[in-house]
Amino acid sequence: MKMRGAAILMNCLLEQEVDTIFGYPGGTILNVYDELYNYRDKIKHILTAHEQGAAHAADGYARSTGKVGVCFATSGPGATNLTTGIATAYMDSSPVVFITCNVNENLMGKDSFQEVDITGISMPITKCNYLVKSASDIADVVREAFAVARSGRPGPVLIDILKNATAKEAEYEFLPREKHYSSGRLETLMKRASDNFRTPSPDEKDIDTLVDMIKESKKPLLICGGGVVRGRAQSEFTEFAEKIDSPVAITVMGGGGFKGRNPLTTGMIGMHGSQASNMACDGCDLLIAVGCRFSDRVALNPELFAKQAKIVQIDIDRSEINKNVQTDHHIIGDAKKVLSMLNERLESQHHDEWKKYVFSFKTETEYDEGGNTLTPKQILSSIAKLFPDDTIVSTDVGQHQMWAIQHFHFDYAGQLLTSGGFGTMGFGLGAAIGAKVGNPEKTVIHITGDGSFRMNCNELCTEQYYDVPVITFIFDNRTLGMVRQWQNLIYNKHFSQTTLDRGPDFVKLAEAYGLKGKKVSNVAELEEAIKEAFEWGHGYVVDCMIDMDEMVRPMVNGGGHITEFIIK
Amino acid sequence: MSTVKRWTLAILVDNEAGVLSQVSRLFSRKGYNIESLAVGTTDSPDTSRITVEILTDIEHITLLSNQLRKLFPVHSVKMLDEDNSIRRELIMIKLLVSTGERRSEIIQIANIFRAQIIDVSLGSITLAMIGDEQKNQGLENILKEFGIAELVRTGAVSIERGIQTIYDKTKERGEFDYGKNVL
Predict the structure, then answer these.
(1) CATH fold of the domain at A2-197
(2) What gap in Å lies between CA A29 and CA A75, rounded to an integer?
(3) Most buried residue, A255, A380, A385, B58, by CB count within 10 Å?
(4) Which of A189, A319, A333 is closest, CB to CB, to B66?
(5) Is the domain covering A376-552 a CATH 3.40.50.970 domain?
(6) Comparing C-alpha atoms, which of A269, A223, A270 is closest to residue A247?
(7) Are domains A204-358 and A376-552 of this chain identical in fold?
(8) Is A316–B175 a contact, with Cβ atoms under 8 angstroms apart?
């Protein structure tokens, strides 16, 4: 059937069972939005306040549902506004397809109005990207883009379509998703790859070697990384950990990959890792990292990291092996597959003495209970008490992020949405909106700081307009807390440009957007605010006043040894 | 610390726009200067082969190769062993000559090196030669005495000796195809 490019795009999105798009229209993408109007019964479009918000929302949608997120933006500034969102998704391996339109072909390369080389700009922050010049290429490219985004190690993909390609007509036939791999360039890609491409199977010998290593080990430690979450390998990982009877340290990205309440959990590992995790890392004889790339916030000093132990890396991405830390053995494969193969071959082990040693250290930081002043611990305890266990938690970046991840026990993959790799302040609100849109039956809360919230609080209007009832908790210390903490500990208390003694009044801001809010400075007020938020049933902002000099503990200095806590 | 030496990478890629910049971006990101670069199509017109030479150590070249293999237009990457591969480069040198005596001297040198004379005018002579690094360098060194007006190199291309090819299926290749994880 002949149809115009924009209609082909819509149909290709329907092939992928896309029902929600986050985006922002503009001049070059007008044809697409014109066509979207015809498909408005089938595809819901969420118009955000800013393209960055749309990018984070699509990312949050993808992380929480496990589906591919979709985001639209126009050329030029629309496209560049996406870049922080794309990079955030890339660093955390989140599958999002970004679709931008560019100027007409005759205007390309002439510095035309709102023209930018977005495929060039996004090259280092996408798994791959496409420039589509002809309507007849749209279907192939969209099919390939979705396959690429969701497969293997997921990641963002960008498609830049020229405006004239969205207007011109081309042939289109509906093709169900399972047939995509035998059409277009995808077919060529499939053929190019070796025989084990379709059913990638971890090497049996590699698996056996690891089984032997595990049998020999007296003091094993597992690290649950983001790969367990992205690969939705929670049950396999849990079985694995329980079979080996090994303590499990969880990275920021691994939150939800292993139940936070499981007695084997030692808590977070790394810069703000628990004493138990970091001491275990320094004392183990076998360290098995699943879907973890040993970032500098986990490994800190790659030369010293677990140097007494044999390090084994299980990862889907070959290029992660030995990238940051030299390993003794590795298995390349999907976490789910590798772990179930290991589970088949493993017999139950017992490491009571080792566990006794590890759990003699604290798995959680003991923060001040606080008296009359509100403390982060009190806020998080009240939230944990009053909200359902399956509440989705989205965070921004900074102290509140670390506190939340240290304190909450995440039960399932996709429950924690946080920018672990890129550390994007302003990620949380958009992501929370995306998560709530994708999971309407679940409660979604957004934990943020006053600094992070100020960055993208414009998305409150999206929350209000589409009635996405996200409850925002601002850990309001009137400073950039994490930076201040570093200045406190390392930079001679020179609080250079970190004090945020300025507006706005967040409660009034929420009200200006048609939402409600409350400023709270003790537990009673806080719990009252939470109850009010439940009754109100729409977006709500709780501005929690905490002390400026609250710190995230423990802390190891960047590049230091994992047990050299500068504060405990 | 492992030793820094010259590494040759042979990279098979899709012959389409933007691929070279994707490949070269990975080198610039790590701060490597490309010592030599040559690109051309293979027996299949859809496929190009990029030969890159850089100075680095074994750890970094392995990481770079792994990251190159992740790029979608990249089919395969092979680290070519200098002892087991042949490296050739085309060099063209233009010299300005004022006398016939000078010209015949240059022609004699060209003959010794088996360089070709590809252009002669009243005031100039241009030589071309294909050779390995030492041979090309040798010619350049001698002709320096005559005053080189212009010199151009294609960048080296390399191919393995014997029956091995870049298309061979190895365990490594299987792993990398998976690492790229299209599906």
Answers:
(1) Rossmann fold (3.40.50)
(2) 7
(3) A255
(4) A319
(5) yes
(6) A223
(7) yes
(8) no
- Chain B CB contacts of A197 below 8 Å: 177-178, 182-183
Q: Is A26 exposed, middle or buried (0-12, 13-18, 19+ CB in 10 A)?
A: buried
CB contact under 8 A, A316 and B181: yes
DSSP letter, residue A360: T
Contact A151/B at CB under 8 A:
yes
The domain spans of chain A are 2-197, 204-358, 376-552
Give pLDDT, residue A335: 93
Pair A102, A130: CB distance under 8 Å: no
Over residues A146-172, the pLDDT tens digits come to 988 988 889 999 999 999 999 999 999
Nearest CA to A26 out of A106, A82, A87 is that of A82
Q: Is A120 helix (H, G, I), strand (E, B) or coil?
A: helix
**CATH for A204-358 (3.40.50.1220, 2.60.40.2950, 3.40.1410.10, 3.30.450.40):** 3.40.50.1220
| ipTM confidence | 0.82
- Could you read off the pLDDT of A278-315 as tens digits, one per residue? 999 999 999 999 999 999 999 999 999 999 999 999 99
Average pLDDT value for residue range A340-362: 96
Amino acid identity for residue A400 in this structure = H
Question: In this predicted model, what pLDDT tens digit does every residue of B61-116 receive, in sequence order?
Answer: 888 888 888 888 888 888 888 888 899 999 999 999 988 899 999 999 999 999 99
Residue entry with tokens 């960048």: B155
Catalytic residue among A163, A337, A355, A518: A163
Q: Is the pLDDT of residue A196 over 50?
A: no
Q: Set out the domains of chain B in order of their start, with CATH numbers.
A: 5-85+159-180 (3.30.70.260), 87-157 (3.30.70.1150)
Q: Do the chains contact at A152 and B176, CB–CB below 8 Å?
A: no
User: Cβ contact (<8 Å) for B182 and A196?
Assistant: no
Nearest to A255 by CA among A287, A279, A223, A281: A223
Which residues from B are below 8 Å from A316, CB to CB?
A: 178-179, 181
